[in-house]
Amino acid sequence: MSKRIVVGLDGSPFAESAVKMAIRRAKVYDSTVVGVSIIDRPSIEQIAAGSQPGAFQMSEDTVSSLLNDAKTHAEELIAQFRMTCDLQEVRHEDIIHTGTPYEGLLDEGKTADLIITGLRTFFHYPTKEGPGDTLEHLLKEPVCPIMAVPEDMELPQNVVIAYDGSHGAARALQAYAHITPDIPEIYPVTLLCVASDYDKNKYHLEKATRFLRAHGIEARMMLRTGRPAEAIKQVIHELHPALVILGSPLRRGLTELLFGSTASSIIKDGTIPVFVYH
Length: 278
What we know:
By secondary structure, the protein is of the alpha/beta class. It is built from ten helices and ten strands.
């Protein structure tokens, strides 16, 4: 179970959904939620030095002003996080990390059971208004399982575990069973394999089913054909709203591993909550 949950705070609706999910889990498992806000000093210094396209060299006073703005923003996010947790009577800790956003989350994740963030991240205040690449970096070097949630997070009513017997899928399956993101009695679990040969893959699904049963989780097996990303999205649409558990084959190159792959396609959709570990 998740006794220590790290959640990224960036002030966006995605982050608000992440906080809600973290608090919900904390209430079920009597957990501590650790809120992390960011002062993205490296991005500010890069723009100040004129090292980014379209940038110009800034004065020291301008850089200092941007850093102060970022510090005030981070402190406001922490204050809001504390108030939200207090109102929900959930134990909490918080930290303001000065540096690269994903490094701050990964550092806290080293002593956590789970990191929850938005499917879109906005940690680069005040240098960038649009979404950044923090989630992509988190998934390249995961130190613990990561749950990424959409802007409008509906409470899952189903769990879909994409499973093909690969090392990455097995690790995600094990992480889910050990952390148990949802209550199995309320949220049915579907083990989904996308393949053309049922008999060839039935063995892997049956073993995974027995593993989950040993952890008190009953699951049904499902086989679909077609392109993996499209097949998984179709099942999620049928079982909506659902949380999808994803792993990645370790034998592939890093780019293909997540971004440009099945997992990347689902994550980039931006509307499907995912639990990823590999």
